[in-house]
Structure formats: C-alpha cells, structure tokens
Amino acid sequence: MQFTVAIDGPAAAGKGTISRGIAEAFGFAHLDTGLLYRAVGRRTLDGTPPAIAAATLRLRDIARTDLRTPDVSDAASKVATRPDVRAALVAFQRDFARRDGGAVLDGRDIGTVICPEAEVKLFVTASAEVRAHRRWLELTEAGHDATEASVLEDVIARDTRDSDRADAPLKAADDAVTLDTSHLSIEDALEQACSVVRKIRENRP
Ligand code: DC
Fold first, then answer.
1. Spelled out in words, what is the top-level CATH class assigned to the domain 4-193?
2. Ligand 1 atom nearest to 80, measured from its CA
3. Ligand 1 in reach of 38 Cβ (< 6 A)
4. Is the CB of residue 78 below 6 angstroms from any atom belonging to ligand 1?
5. Domain limits of the chain?
6. Has this prediction a pTM greater than 0.90?
7. What are the CB-based long-range contacts (under 8 Å, 24+) for 110-114?
C-alpha cells in the first residue's frame, strides 16, 4: 500500500511532533526532510562546497547529533536556496514517499514539489512569536545560550529566506489543509491532524 502524507510549514510550527505522531498512529515511515538540508549545511560549515555536500550525502551525515544548533539552522536555510542542492535531494525524498506501507514527510516543499500527488497534504503553521518561544525553550533546555529576542530574529530571517527563494519556496499547496497550532496543545494539534488523515484514508476507493 502506498500512501503519502505531506506536511509543510515554517520552522517550529509543530511539524515534527505532528509528523512523528501520525507515523506512529498509522504505522507509516517518517522522514524529516529538514535533516537533509541541515546535514548539507553542516558539511558546508566543515568546508565542503554545497553541491558536492548534497550529491555525496551519506546516512551518517544525517545521523549526526549536532544538526539542531542555530549555526546549522542558518547554514541549512542558506544551502536550501540553491537549485543544485535541492535537485540532488529530490530522488531520495520521492523514493521514500512511495515506499510500501505509507510514509510521512515533513519540510517546506513536500506538497508542492516533492509529492504533488500526496494523498494527504497538511500545512502546519503558528505565529512567529509562538514559534520563537517554542524554539527558545528547546534550545535552552538543550543547554544552548540564547535570548528569546535573538531566536525570534532568527525565525523571521529564516521564514523570509525560505518563503522568498525562487526554487521551491515555502508555501501551502492549493489543496493543503491548514492547521494553525498557535493556540493548540500538542495533543489537540495531533488529534486534528490524525482526523484529516483518517477521513481521507476511509474515503479512498
Ligand atoms: O525543518 P528544519 O527547520 O529542520 O529545516 C531546516 C532548513 O532546511 C529550513 O530553513 C529550510 C530548509 N528546508 C527546505 O528548504 N525544504 C525542506 N523540504 C525542508 C527543509
């Protein structure tokens, strides 16, 4: 059975939690596509040119534990503006999306470019302030030193770069269901997302 759930949205809107929750609830595989761009960004910080870093990406690059730092977020968002980097990562994502047993992919361009045929498309969003607060909590809990104001600045800069780029910008697909998590608990956001998936699965021919 092939069944793809495409989840897009800006940083820290809750895509990761919702994607993992859907994958668990329905027994689907999950790919956080941001990790691919983070791994490429990480390698560029180590001196590898972006196109080469993307074309030679290995599983061990994606498994690194230092991909969530602010400098890697920034590098990822920068390499993600490059068409050569994006093109190198398409086939892997599409193969993952059509794997047997169902797949959830989360990112920025999954419903628009990677899987325009996805059975379910969700656009998960929240206000910049709410997202910055969540990201700041995550960073400080992980022991990073950051002010909430600087995290908000980073979030807005990344939103602008992700949304304004020419190739595969962040935007909701025309047929995506938008879920604003600004005032939702994790449980309620996940329940709403699961109910969209459930309805579409039940109504399949
Ligand atoms: O989802 P994330 O914050 O881990 O993503 C890191 C960066 O990667 C983000 O700023 C934009 C880029 N990205 C992208 O351009 N396309 C995707 N499908 C996923 C992430």
1. alpha beta
2. 15
3. yes
4. no
5. 4-193
6. yes
7. 110/6, 110/7, 110/8, 110/33, 111/6, 111/7, 111/8, 111/172, 111/173, 111/175, 111/176, 112/8, 112/168, 112/171, 112/173, 113/168, 114/6, 114/33, 114/90
